[in-house]
Amino acid sequence: MSAILCTKTTDTTPHASGDGSGRETMQAMRRLAFAAFIWLAAAGVQAAPPDPIEFGITVERGDTRTVKRWLDEGLDPEFQADRVGSGLMIAAWNGDIPMMTLFTERGANPRRVNRNGEQALLLAAWNGHLDAVKWLLEHGAALNRDDQQWSALHYAVFNGQEKVARYLIERGAQVNARSPNLSTPLILAAREGREDLAKVLLESGADPKAKNDWGDSALTMAMRYDHLRLGKMISSPEEFAIAVKAPKESFGTASRSAAAPNDIDQLLRQLRQAQAEGKQTDELRQKFYAAVDAFRKASTPSPQASRRPFPRPQTPGTLVITARRGQVGERAELVAAGGPPSGKAETTPAARTASGPSTPGEVADLLREIRIASVQGRSTDELRRRLNDAIDRLPK
């Protein structure tokens, strides 16, 4: 390279035209060599990566200019924020297609998973971002995943995103896909009382007799959570007649307190939108805090009853999986090879107590994690502590 830079400009090569084209060619080569030299020099001095918290907030706010600068300075496109996961995952969570485009153009993989085993498509489906779901599927996201993993259809059904669920089914989503504890989308629909979605799933071939790893069927969930009309819809007349005569406690104890009220989710979305547009948020914040106070009071965990041990079923995988059995007081835990036991989560940026102000997006993410942990039967104590901390750190 240095030899090229030091080459004299005298053109000794004969040319037919004699119009100086050789000199122009040599000058172009010098410019190209100089540009390569500058690029190599810049590559050797890479800027320090941003703080994970700062990175997450910047992506959440849709600040593509700052994110582009970080990427131009050499930031890994798979860089992880303190919560949710990579920049692409946060953008999918917010339905921010320009931000998703930026990350994928720089090499971000739509199929990468975060510490919860979630992909970007699942996060977009959870929040009902249909356009983002379509975009991700067009750019390599997995419509269906290997057995015993959460799918986008699971998430759309669980959070009541009917338009997204219908679209995923139209695209060929497996309606009998199994989650880590073997729950199908129909079992989740029955748990949450989502009649319209349950009907769509049944019409698309969902198996109403499928059971999770502790024997809970969609009918069991419907009866446990008092969704009698849904229970009648998904069962035969004989099965439903037996179910309504059975003692309530035979279906297990409902854990409603883990689910965030819809008004909190709606207010969080409105807050994020208002912040992105630079609008006044005082009134929204007052409503949000009132809803959060009600949630905190309703979700205070009661002392747990003593639980007797139960044999561990054989389930492959690398996730910590727990599940609640139909009988009151029973609980079992699966700890796959290489994973930490329940209550001893891996040390990750998201698991540490954060400092500085939080964002509505952080609160929404924790509420989602609480709901997912609840449906798997996992303890939510640490997640609730982090939720309370995040709420306390929200700017007043």
From TrEMBL:
Keywords: ANK repeat, Repeat. SMART domains: ANK (SM00248). SUPFAM superfamilies: Ankyrin repeat. ANK repeats lie at residues 116-148, 148-180, 181-213. Residues 1-23, 297-317, 334-363 are annotated as: Disordered. The keyword Transmembrane helix does not apply. This is Ankyrin repeat domain-containing protein. It comes from Rhodocyclus tenuis (Rhodospirillum tenue).
